[in-house]
Amino acid sequence: AQKVTQAQTEISVVEKEDVTLDCVYETRDTTYYLFWYKQPPSGELVFLIRRNSFDEQNEISGRYSWNFQKSTSSFNFTITASQVVDSAVYFCALSGDSNYQLIWGAGTKLIIKP
Amino acid sequence: DTGVSQDPRHKITKRGQNVTFRCDPISEHNRLYWYRQTLGQGPEFLTYFQNEAQLEKSRLLSDRFSAERPKGSFSTLEIQRTEQGDSAMYLCASSSSGGAKNIQYFGAGTRLSVL
After folding, report:
1. Structural contact between residues B7 and B109, judged by C-beta atoms closer than 8 angstroms
2. Considering only CB atoms, which chain B residues are within 8 Å of A45?
3. Which pLDDT tens digit goes with each residue over B19-49?
């Protein structure tokens, strides 16, 4: 069975601090995909990144970076120099190679205080 | 290129009534997905289509739920005899079958309130 765990329910930091959101997954598939989505207060889920199981290179996009480690089944997300606009719920998700339904974590609510 | 569009954005209904939601995917996307999201939870997969074929529907919550995509373009999700427990956000997503085939792009959702 596939499962995604986001143990941090809510994180609150002051603007400009760095923050890491944790994601741990379970799957028996050898080929799978991991995702991060952002859900701001407006409600629309915004795609941030997709990573496949064969690519363990870390990814950096501006202030965002992702650390994928198969050895620990983790796909963590770091925001550097956080901003108030980063406040949202962040979801980690998993899908297989043939079945594209996304299995979601419960989300981490990130609050950035000015 | 417009994104995924869902209509209505909000629906308030009385218990026992039928409701239907519409989703228009990104125009070149041939895959379409429906999810349900309750407060404080991640989305829960319901069903998905490739073109007009419904390839997975075992996760529909009960036989009161049904979905169609008759011409492989827009889709509808119908809930018959609504119950208070059906109150949730219903999300639609679409994806292509190309290189980014499983990146799902979401609409803003339809929030259903059953009184």
Report:
1. no
2. 43, 91, 93, 106
3. 999 999 999 899 999 999 998 899 999 999 9
